[in-house]
Write a structure and sequence with these properties.
It is built from seven helices and nine strands. By secondary structure, it is an alpha+beta fold. Strands 1, 2, 3, 4, 5, 6, 7, 8 and 9 form a nine-stranded mixed sheet that branches. The longest helix is centred in the last third of the chain and has 23 residues, at 199-221. It is globular and about 50 Å long. It starts with 7 loop residues before the first strand and ends in a 7-residue tail after the last helix. Residues 19-25 have low confidence and may be disordered.
Length: 228
């Protein structure tokens, strides 16, 4: 499944929403707004609410992949943590490991904007000492897949969901907590995003592909990841 991601840096949105106003207020060319530090918020909900207002102000100039009406009626949902998977840990891992044991430091806080039961779009936040700033908006792939996971798994509406991204394989994994342990969902390798997988099944698929990728592109990987 291919997605247009619509990931837009927050600074671009703030400029689109405020540039004309700054020109009128300052009698300048708008450079003042570019030098402003990102505003900090005390909670993910507060930051996501402010991001939504910026999106509404800029929606006529910026394509977020969502309608004004759906965005206007959306409210911040429970934050979701997005972790990067350590590539070397995946390649070296044994069969008992899970994505949770291979994460890189400093996860991204993702806040879904929800209209009814639908995930409309996503807001990505930076977190420094419990102070949140808006980093990016509109990851369409994660918004659509998170929406499908929440609806496919009844626990997805109540339980914690974590997101894992695997570099080089371009795999995105969604982990939904359950009494039996985490259930994993992914559209990677033409899997149905609505079909839950156990950890062993997921690991076997990812590690086999990672080892093959490493054998083929190992020299290039020494210079950095081929793809994000």
């Amino acid at each position: 499944m291919k997605y247009a991601k619509y990931i837009i840096p927050a600074l671009a949105i703030m400029l689109a929403a405020s540039c004309d106003m700054d020109k009128k207020a300052n009698g300048q060319d708008g450079n003042t707004s570019q030098q402003q530090a990102p505003k900090e918020y005390k909670s993910p909900t507060e930051a996501a609410t402010a991001a939504k207002e910026d999106m509404l102000a800029a929606i006529d100039k910026v394509n977020f992949g969502v309608s004004r009406e759906a965005l206007k009626n959306a409210t911040p949902g429970t934050p979701v943590m997005k972790y990067g998977i350590d590539w070397d840990a995946l390649v070296r891992a044994d069969s008992n490991i899970t994505p949770e044991n291979m994460t890189q430091p400093e996860p991204v806080t993702m806040v879904p904007l929800i209209n009814g039961t639908d995930v409309v779009t996503m807001v990505a936040l930076n977190n420094r000492n419990q102070q949140y700033t808006v980093a990016a908006l509109g990851d369409k792939q994660i918004a659509e897949e998170l929406d499908m996971v929440r609806k496919a798994d009844s626990a997805g509406m109540q339980s914690e969901i974590k997101i894992f991204e695997v570099p080089n394989l371009q795999a995105v994994i969604y982990a939904v907590g359950s009494p039996r342990g985490n259930i994993y969902y992914t559209s990677y390798n033409n899997n149905s995003i609505r079909r839950g997988m156990n950890g062993a099944e997921l690991f076997k698929m990812l590690r086999n592909d990672a080892v093959l990728f490493q054998r083929q592109f190992g020299e290039e990987l020494k210079k950095g990841n081929l793809v994000k």
